[in-house]
Amino acid sequence: FWVIPAVEVKIEVVIPEKERSKEEISPNGKASPLIYKVNGTARHYHLEEHPIASNPYHNPKDVVEASVCHVKDLENGQMREVDLGCGKALLIKESGEFHAVGHKCPHYGAPLVKGVLSKGRVRCPWHGACFNIGTGDIEDFPGLDSLPRFQVKIEKEKVYIRASKQALQTQRRTKMMAKCISLSNYNLSSTNVLIIGAGAAGLVCAETLRQEGFSDRIVMCTMDRHLPYDRPKLSKSMDSHPEQITLRPKEFFCTYDIEVLTEMQVAAVDVKSKIAVFKDGFKMEYNKLLIATGNTPKTLSCKGKEVENVFNIRTPEDANRVVKLATSKNVVIVGASFLGMEVAAYLAERAHSVSLVELEHVPFKKFFGERVGRAVMKMFENNRVKFYMQTEVSELREQEGKLKEVVLKSGKVLRADVCVVGVGAVPATGFLKQSGINIDSKGFIVVNKMMQTNIPGVFAAGDAVTFPLALRNNKKVNVPHWQMAHMHGRIAALNMLAHGTEISTVPYLWTAMFGKSIRYAGHGEGFDDVVIQGDLDELKFVAFYTKSDEVVAVASMNYDPIVSKVAEVLAAGRTIRKRDVDSVVFLSFRTGDMSWLTGKGS
Question: For 539-575, what is each residue's pLDDT tens digit?
Fold first, then answer.
């Protein structure tokens, strides 16, 4: 067991100018110490000392100030995108106060003015990320960066915004982070925090620890050869190269002393000795452990499954290789999963033919319901994708070792130069079977609301866990969404630091096909009815998923920001009844009136 030395050290904390609050400065102008406890021992960390300056923008040439509107131009609860000449900002009025932040979501650049403002935060209309309007801080995901916050002043009933030109151009801000005590003091085979898995959950966990002032060693290990990357793009933007989808550059990890061990697989965990054993025999001691290994795709079990050019999309190289092989060739996709459908959509214009094989009679039936599934299926058929439903693959035939044909159980033989398999996945937790960590019958790691396992000091996050979902009366669920993995990582990090923070986020996901997106919020597992507003044939609709009398999830296409609005309602702990969908609720969504959100009852 590695003991962290209880010594007083001074560390550097990178603090954006806009984040230096009055509370951080003591009367004598020196930075006040932050106190953090490790294993019950108080340790003092000092913020980097800076002189007090009346002007937070050190370079006057980098500052722009502009009058953007009259104070009466905005009512409470309204947002406006304003131009400062060298960039735009989002001006917000809530409870009589004006706020100004970046106008684009740092995730994929969505215009936040089209999002949802509610109770001190704005939610992105595309993917549901939430930002505090007072600080710009990110409060829900996806994405890693916060919004820049700009100064607002009122003079002679005019609203002025003062902003850094650089911040206006970048439209993003990385929260202040601690750095590590000199790594030369550490034994290479021991770490304070070990994170197994370098996806969204692992990365957000590491970043959150640094944001909270944690300055001991953090090691992430991954079977992948790359630094953490934007995994959803593997099926949505298949020809993206690794460097184009990396979530953070190499310099970021060096700057904040987050070590990443690539192509390293953990084979076993000894929770009593607090040791992780790697496949190559290397052992690493840890104090706190996060398991965020995600899942492993299922493979075909039919005859000929070993032939060349049959892929599970797991890495950027897989996706790139499929695009190259599929161009002007015949593609067969097995499984109408999110991955299978997104790959089919991406390849439809590039391949000679795209055929999709699925056991169900309608794509997405269990997730979106039959009517929405049929509408999506029709869109695919209009884009030259051929469906073979209610059947499965019986054989893969080869010629000179490479795939030539896919034989279906129905007897149909499909020409195929490349095959992509998307028939689901299983949690990557096999290495934990003898560990004593609680694993359920399906292989998922069981955690509580603080992402803690049954073993003290061991946390788990992401696709490999089941956790209590507040939205569904704390039912233990598995939610393999990109947004949820981010939040899991943050909650785990906060509780490694003994914050006692419980997860309460609303699941939010999206899928992109043929330039159109379906957005989805909530958890519709076990829904018994679907109430649809809009026109399915025109692919402009909202689908409310109900269980008994309660709306448990919503999906939409071409109806932004309705899913983000519903997500805010659910996040507020309010209930939408089935009877409300046709009347008050839906009408208020269409008009943009959110006043009913703060009302009493359900």
Answer: 999 999 999 999 999 999 999 999 999 999 999 999 9
Q: Name residues whose C-beta falls within 8 Å of residue 122's C-beta, 6 or more positions apart in sequence.
A: 79, 90, 92, 101, 112, 115, 116, 130, 131, 133
Q: Which CATH architecture has domain 310-423?
A: 3-Layer(bba) Sandwich (3.50)
| Residue 95: partners with Cβ closer than 8 Å, 6 or more residues away | 76
pTM above 0.85, yes or no: yes
Quick one: CA dihedral 378, 380, 385, 390, positive or negative? negative
| φ/ψ bin of 369: left (φ > 0), alpha (ψ from -120 to 50), beta (otherwise) | left
- The Cα–Cα gap between 181 and 559 comes to 50
How far apart are alpha carbons 114 and 234 in whole angstroms? 27
Structure tokens at 377: 């299926």
- Side-chain half-sphere of 244: how many Cα atoms within 13 Å? 11
Residue with tokens 């030259």: 384
Taking only the tens place, the pLDDT of each residue in 442-472 is 999 999 999 999 999 999 999 999 999 999 9
Cα separation, 490 vs 140, whole angstroms: 10
The answer for 558, left when phi > 0, alpha when psi is -120 to 50, beta otherwise, is left
Q: Which fold has domain 61-170?
A: Rieske Iron-sulfur Protein (2.102.10)
Kindly state the average pLDDT of the residues 252-263.
96
Asked if residue 585 has pLDDT above 70, the reply is no
Predicted local distance difference test score (pLDDT) of residue 180: 84
Short-list 393, 390, 300, 380, CA closest to 345: 380
- Six token digits for residue 143: 């994405």
Q: C-alpha angle with apex 458: 452 to 462, nearest 5 degrees?
A: 60
The answer to whether the beta carbons of residues 136 and 146 sit under 8 Å apart is yes
User: How do residues 286-297 score in pLDDT, each as one tens digit?
Assistant: 999 999 999 999
- Alpha helix (H) residue ranges in 431-549: 482-496
Q: Return mean pLDDT, the chain.
A: 88
In total, the chain counts a number of residues equal to: 602
Q: What is the C-alpha to C-alpha distance for residues 206 and 320, in angstroms, rounded to an integer?
A: 29
CATH architecture of residue range(s) 515-597:
2-Layer Sandwich (3.30)
